[in-house]
UniProtKB/TrEMBL annotation:
GO terms for molecular function: ligase activity. This is 2-amino-3-ketobutyrate coenzyme A ligase, mitochondrial. Belongs to the class-II pyridoxal-phosphate-dependent aminotransferase family. Its cofactor is pyridoxal 5'-phosphate. InterPro entries: 2am3keto_CoA_ligase, Aminotrans_II_pyridoxalP_BS, Aminotransferase_I/II_large, AON_synthase_class-II, PyrdxlP-dep_Trfase, PyrdxlP-dep_Trfase_major, PyrdxlP-dep_Trfase_small. It comes from the Eukaryota. Residues 70-411 form the Aminotransferase class I/classII large domain. The keyword Transmembrane does not apply.
Length: 422
């Protein structure tokens, strides 16, 4: 009797542990609407699929269900610290000493000595007064504008800023101005318009992740000074490797004392685990601890994650050798690809977009690169403007010269095959 019931359930696909579909007209209507929306995404050719990695993050990967030996050129692992043995060891030690997690937000019972130490270290690294940790930089960006700006104030944002800045600005009640990408004339015009407000904050990515271009921070800071504005930068694609000591875009362009607020991530060059932060004037950080909603209402960073980031910062503060090695690899890739006939957008940044124009070309070339063991990703509209499709290559300090050369060779072969090169 019991066995018969199990067999019937198995045949219906409803065995123990099988997903249960919610019943009722509303659930059915929702399912239909979602399926039609998903079909639209597939139809528009913008479906994002996820490749499953069966190894650690690093320059060489094994993909699930496939072979190993894939050379990875699409992680934000700029300094190769995501699987650095000392970073992993620091995570294990923090896990053992401080446990798996805090089961709490920071202000209830979620602050450990390692959280305070990491905040001090981040502030020291950026030469700022204080720092505050978040679960991600997305959260840091979501939390800062609402806490800082009121309807009396204004925020001026580069039109190509990261989605998290755009969302953070949406959440605040300040007056919003969007200036054309890195266009200083337009920023100046918007700053003039914004003179009527109490406070002006210019917000920009330090380095833009789709183009590998770097914000003209010197000019932005000059305009900010002229029109009495503050400057905020998102340094996710700069912290740890831009500038002579890897402090970021503000160090690279000599304006560390002119940029007021820096937001960045622990999830890219700084060990790659997760987490984000704001660093800047102490009263601002104090205010964020009181008012910033993603900080107040979300769990503390897990100790292992704190351990990774803390060790990554130690390694960078000891020496700039890793950052220098990444810069040399970047230079090798950019110059060899340019000599081969490709156009690489941006300048001196490890984000190296190989500009192709046509969306289909970018997609088939990326697929063919993977067939040759090189993992790169094609980007097309709506992620980048129409007609500006590209394959984005990201260089890491742990790529060998041979890895870089193999990538250039594969691009050359695949480019010739698909007509991107003569
Ligand atoms: N800002 C920029 C410019 C980014 O590229 C990203 C990540 O993609 C974020 C913010 C969000 O960072 P996190 O992954 O820490 O949430």
């Amino acid at each position: 009797m019991w066995r018969a019931a199990v067999v019937v359930r198995a045949l219906r696909g409803g065995g123990a542990g099988a997903p249960r579909a919610a019943s009722g007209a509303a659930a059915a209507q929702l399912r239909q609407r979602l399926e039609s929306e998903l079909e639209d995404i597939r139809g528009a050719g913008t479906w994002k699929s996820e490749r499953v990695i069966a190894s650690r993050q690093g320059p060489h990967l094994r993909l699930a269900g496939g072979g190993g030996g894939i050379i990875n050129f699409c992680a934000n692992n700029y300094l190769g610290l995501s699987s650095h043995p000392e970073v992993i060891r620091a995570a294990v030690e923090a896990l053992e000493k401080f446990g798996a997690g805090l089961s709490s937000v920071r202000f209830i019972c979620g602050t450990q000595s390692i959280h305070k130490d990491l905040e001090k270290k981040i502030a020291r690294f950026h030469q700022r007064e204080d720092a505050i940790l978040y679960a991600s930089c997305f959260d840091a960006n979501a939390g800062i504008f609402e806490a800082l700006l009121t309807p009396e104030d204004a925020v001026l944002s580069d039109e190509l800023n990261h989605a998290s800045i755009i969302d953070g600005i949406r959440l605040c009640k300040a007056n919003k101005y969007r200036y054309k990408h890195m266009d200083m004339q337009d920023l100046e015009a918007k700053l003039q318009e914004a003179q009527k407000h109490r406070l002006r904050l210019v917000a920009t990515d330090g380095a833009f992740s789709m183009d590998g271009d770097i914000a003209p921070l010197r000019e932005i800071c000059q305009l900010a000074q002229k029109y009495d504005a503050l400057v905020f930068i998102d340094e996710c694609h700069a912290t740890g490797f831009l500038g002579p000591n890897g402090r970021g875009t503000d160090e690279l362009l000599g304006v560390m004392d002119k940029v007021t607020i820096v937001n960045s991530t622990l999830g890219k060059a700084l060990g790659g685990a997760a987490g984000g932060y704001t660093t800047g004037p102490k009263p601002l950080i104090d205010l964020l601890r009181q008012r910033s909603r993603p900080y107040l209402f979300s769990n503390s960073l897990p100790p292992a994650v704190v351990g990774c980031a803390s060790k990554a910062l130690d390694l960078l503060m000891e020496s700039n050798a890793i950052a220098k090695s990444m810069a040399a690899k970047t230079q090798r890739f950019r110059s060899k690809m340019t000599a081969a006939g490709f156009t690489i957008s941006g300048k001196d940044h490890p984000i190296c977009p190989v500009m192709l124009g046509d969306a289909r070309l970018a997609s088939v070339m990326a697929e063919d690169m993977l067939n040759r063991g090189i993992y790169v990703i094609g980007f097309s509209y709506p992620v980048v403007p129409k007609g500006k499709a590209r394959i984005r290559v990201q260089i890491s300090a742990v790529h060998s010269d041979e890895d870089i050369d193999r990538c250039v060779e594969a691009f050359t072969e695949v480019g010739r095959k698909h007509g991107a090169l003569p």
